[in-house]
Amino acid sequence: MPASSKFFSSKLTLGYVAWWLVLISIEAYAITDAFDFSWVVALQDATTMIVLVAVAGQIMHNSVRYYQPSLKRSFQMIAWSIALAILCVVAHRFIVTTYLLPDNQPYLTYLAGSYIFRGLFIWIMISMMGTISWIWFYFQDQRASESREQDVIKLAREAELTTLRQQLQPHFLFNSLNSISALAGSRPEEARKMIQQLSDFLRGTIKRDNQQLVTLEEELNHLYLYLEIEKVRFGHRMKTEIEKDEAASGMMLPSLLLQPVVENAIKFGLYDTTGEIIIRIRAQAKENELVVTVENPFDAETTQPKQGVGFGLTGIQRRLYLLYARNNLLTTRQEGNQLFITEVTIPQKA
Amino acid sequence: MIKTILIDDEPLARSITREYLQAYADIEVVQECNDGFEGVKAITQHKPDLIFLDIQMPKINGFEMLELIDTPPAVIFTTAFDEYAMKAFEAHAIDYLLKPFSKDRFDKAMQKWKLQQSKGEQPAKLLTEEIRQPEERNRVVVKEGGNIRIIPVHEIQYIEAYDDYVKIFTLKEMFLKKKTMGFYEQSLNADQFVRVHRSYIIQLNQLTRIEPLEKDTHVALLKSGTRVPLSKTGYTKLKSVLGL
């Protein structure tokens, strides 16, 4: 039991023992002072009693460890402590009258008059120990369940991030393979180049760590690979423009965050219009934030304005929320009737 | 000469089909199309015997394109969709080729087609009711004269049955489409559209009032002022959807 072993760590044990010694001395002093008994008599009385109280307290402590009553059922503990207190008084009387001071008449008279006071004192001591133990174990439990809860959250978060990241569209993969298959017949050199690009892209996707932060530079390099592949497929109607602030290059962002945003913009742009499209990607450094905007054309006449981010971006929004606990890091807006803009904000560590 | 048309938004994807077709001396590729719009035009113009059709394409997908053609030619789908999705319409096309596909697999599809042709069988009619794509929940594609129109579903007021067709009423216009009420009852979002009568589906946000007509019968008053009759079950359904 880690809880009780902590409770009885060496320092605590020392304090515990010292506490009882102090109590013994105080009680003995009180008896000599108030009733004029010799130190020997007083110490025998006090030691017997305090040892009994200590034992009862220990019993109380163990009871609370294995059975933590709710506040409503605390009367059980009160009854139990009263019973223990009475037991202590009886045992004390038995020990001192039978073994220690059977013939000391003045002491026996004093003892007979002190039962109630003695019992009350013992009961208060026992209750106090019970209460302290109860609080102690209560917080132990609380802390344990809290850390468990955090573990669960952390695990869930990791699992979720993995899935979100692995939502690499199989479509993309199979269509790329199909392009390679087409090139292999007529332009084998290009086929080989595309295999290389696709491999580099996939390797980049697989090897990255879940919560790893990478520089914008690295992320853009990964993005170029992706765009090169998409251009083999859609080069006849798609152009891309990438702009970045010099200051933004070294800024950090979660790995593989931009590619799905751009993928979404490309899909949206390609499938919502029939003409040529330009995808613009712009990375700006703002104070303590990296802001990346991705622009794609769309057709306002046939695409209904959507609530929220929509368009397959919810996964990315969710990922940003899990990492930064903020809900406003991914926003979308329409500019005029033809441009759809996705904006991703990544807070930088100061 | 057997005429065929290739419809795919990726030129490279078309080139592979074209390459495989070189082995078939009796087949001529009369046109290649980048999207469904071009596809509809080309099919109307050339009346091909066979088409190779991609599914995910700009503006309208392959299924929506087929809906716009009165007598569709034989279809072989070429797509990167996964097999599971493809199973749904396996029975309704000559064949489907999963990209990337081999020459052998391609030849098999061609054999299937030739076999069907020699038996004089009509290709099984596409039952697109079963194979809706997610984007089809948000739009309806119709032909208006020679033009293709895409109607976002939020513009639809109500849909009325009309023999083998349905009339789709937006605020400004009406479009005819060869579809069943059952198709739209299933494909449109049930939170948004309710079939209130054997012959009517209304969009809920168009509804302003439910009025009693005679004993036990009701009509729905729409924002445009149109009154749509409610059947008994339609009335009950409408009330439960509205939480009344």
Q: How many beta-strand elements of chain B?
A: 15
Number of helices of chain A: 11
Tell me what portion of residues of chain B adopts beta-strand conformation: 25-35%
How many alpha or pi helices of chain B?
7
Give the distance, in angstroms, between the N- and C-terminal Cα atoms of chain A: 42 Å
Mean pLDDT, all residues of chain A: 85
Distance between the termini of chain B: 64 Å
How much is the average pLDDT of chain B? 87
Major sheet of chain A: 5 strands, mixed
Largest interface: A-B, 28 and 27 residues
Structural Rg of chain A: 38 Å
The low-confidence parts of chain B are none
- H-E string of chain A: HHHHHHHHEHEEHEEHEE
Tell me the structural class of chain B. Answer: alpha/beta
**Element-by-element helix/strand order of chain B:** EHEHEHEHEHEEEEEHEEEEEH
How would you write the strand order of the largest sheet of chain B? 2-1-3-4-5
Q: Give a quick account of the main beta sheet of chain B: strands, pairing sense, barrel closure.
A: 5 strands, parallel
